[in-house]
């Protein structure tokens, strides 16, 4: 199974240079940590350990604080997002109609957990609280495509469309 923490960091020299220029521009601004982390995520697409470490070293802020901010706010991603971003609704209507089993089936088929990305960066998986299609429960979304009234038996076929 491929786990997100096995996805290698592949930042470029250009991204690193862009990060350092941005940090230099903002470092003297009061409350600069959040804007720096947001822009770093814009540069890299997520906030892997390596990027957090660069921010920590440049700002002389402990890694614990950087990691704490990154894990507290849902806008930050510690893992890359896949080409195909899968969201399984675990909101009340979907949950009552079996969305946890759908979510578990996707996890098993892809070998990843919520918030993770396959090693080939093809798929990422997230649980969400409501897609807004309660009448179609249980619901899964892949990018902008919504799949409703799902059964676990349909998951493999749906994923195969994206291979």
Note down, in words, how this protein is organized.
Strand 3 (140-142) and strand 4 (145-147) form a beta hairpin. The radius of gyration is 18 Å and the shape is elongated. Helices cover 45% and strands 11% of the residues. The chain is built from seven helices and four strands. The two termini are 17 Å apart. By secondary structure, it is of the alpha+beta class.
Write the layout of secondary structure elements.
Blueprint: H1 13-26, H2 33-44, H3 49-59, H4 63-72, E1 84-89, H5 92-96, H6 99-110, E2 123-128, E3 140-142, E4 145-147, H7 152-160
Parallel strand pairs: 1-2
Antiparallel strand pairs: 1-3, 3-4
Helix pairs in contact: 1-2, 2-3, 6-7
Question: Key terms for this structure?
Answer:
163 residues
Radius of gyration: 18 Å
What gross morphology would you assign?
A: elongated
- Low-pLDDT parts are none
Distance between the termini: 17 Å
Q: How is the main sheet built?
A: 4 strands, mixed
Which class of secondary structure composition applies to the elements? alpha+beta
Write a brief structural summary.
This protein has seven helices and four strands. It is α+β, with helices and mostly antiparallel strands. The mean pLDDT is 94.
